[in-house]
């Protein structure tokens, strides 16, 4: 687990082949790109792991051109192209629009991103043996506590 900048934390769970990223507070596309650059450099990062990005406590600040910049970054960063499922967890309409637009623009890649508003739906989509609502909520709570300390 590591805290990155601006209340962004992540956790690699090797036994589940899963990475959880937690975003809180005001957030820009630059923050997301910075986060991704740091995560892919870590020793325990595995590009084939499924991914959960929790935006429920974040306030995403973006314009349409920012989504294009994020898509360009993704296309240039080939380590991110590995086949996997990606679940965006959010509760705000503007983040649903952003994640849906991003998913549409990277449709030609082997990752399969979807946007959800509940942990139950994320669990059903990822279908990872050993991942339950209760233990996912515990992992997210652990990440939240880590950001609270810093």
Features:
150 residues; alpha/beta; Transcription Regulator spoIIAA; 6-stranded mixed beta sheet; 6 strands; 29% strand; globular
Fourth-tier CATH superfamily name: STAS domain
Number of H/I helices: 5
Low-confidence spans: pLDDT under 50, at least 5 residues? none
Number of strands: 6
**Total of domains:** 1
Beginning-to-end CA distance, first to last residue: 13 Å
> What is the name of the CATH topology?
Transcription Regulator spoIIAA
Helical content class: 40-55%
Classify the beta-strand content into a percent band. 25-35%
Radius of gyration: 14 Å
> Largest sheet, order of strands side by side?
1-2-3-4-5-6
Describe what this molecule looks like in 3D.
The protein has 150 residues and is of the alpha/beta class. 43% of the residues lie in helices and 29% in strands. It has one domain (2-149): Transcription Regulator spoIIAA (2-Layer Sandwich), CATH 3.30.750.24. The radius of gyration is 14 Å and the shape is globular.
Lay out the secondary structure:
Blueprint: E1 2-3, E2 8-13, E3 18-28, H1 29-41, E4 50-61, H2 64-76, E5 84-89, H3 93-105, E6 111-116, H4 119-126, H5 133-149
Parallel strand pairs: 3-4, 4-5, 5-6
Antiparallel strand pairs: 1-2, 2-3
Helix pairs in contact: 1-2, 2-3
Summarize the structure.
By secondary structure, this protein is α/β, with parallel strands linked by helices.
